[in-house]
Predict the 3D structure of the following.
Amino acid sequence: MIEEKEIGPRIGAHKSIAKSIDLAIDRGVHSTCECLQIFTRPPRRWNTVELKPNAVQEFIKKSNAANYYDTAIHMPYLPNLASPDDTLFEKSVKVLIEEIEKMPILHVPYVITHLGSPKDLDEVFAAKRVAEALNRGLNHIKKSSMILLENSTAKRKKWGNEIEHIEAILSLVEEEHFIGVCFDTAHAFSSGYDISTSEGLNEVIDNLEGLVGKNKLQMFHINDSKGPLGSGIDHHEHIGKGYIGIECFRELMQNPRFKKFPMILETPKSDQIGDINNLELLRKFRSRS
Ligand SMILES: [Zn+2]
Ligand SMILES: [Zn+2]
């Protein structure tokens, strides 16, 4: 296992915090995760869930034991940092600040957010609005923490699906060194970035690094896609079972340029194939590099 880790990226999955936040670590360890992503609250509700001090202590203790040192908090789904509606925008910024404030409490370095939707307004408005949210959030951030912007699939509203949108936000953020990028393979593919071949993947990542800077990319979400290239369908599929196919994931496991990144599965949980199986497949690729 140690040898494998030395030759490829660390791989893990999104895990539930149901019943108690520290149980996410147990679930990660049980699924052989080497890194982790969590929600700290129900993703489709607005209410805050207080973190219980005992559970926080257990979370930190178990994280250390499992060597999960770069866990990411994914923002819940309801906040919209690009919303033109002032009430919704203010509620969204409040959630962003709450999640940012949990990073030092839980000893985790990342909060991941989507770029939201500006509804009927344009990209210029959207970039300004998200940058405003981030600038306000950054007043609450501590050292060694980062907010990661995740590329999304934008079906109806053309926002959040292009690397240029992330670049536009970054150019408006005051303390840019606190902002990084999380690249979701399924979102990129269904938005039209053809990463199904190793050449295609490397080109897209070259392009991304060219636009936002080489040090910005911090993490990958590794999901295959139920929707075809450019379909705008945001449905994740098990590794190698979707339209992206295995070549992309083999390249991610084997090319030394990707070695330093934590990679998180967000693949379906409800059927025969689980995180354990996807991780096993990825480890096969990784061990043959
Ligand atoms: Zn996401
Ligand atoms: Zn994702």
Q: What stands out?
A: The pocket of zinc ion (ligand 2) is lined by residues 150, 184, 221, 266 (CB under 6 Å). Strands lie at 10-14, 36-38, 72-74, 110-113, 146-150, 179-184, 217-221, 224-225, 236-237, 262-265. The domain at 2-287 is CATH 3.20.20.150 (TIM Barrel). The chain has one domain: 2-287.
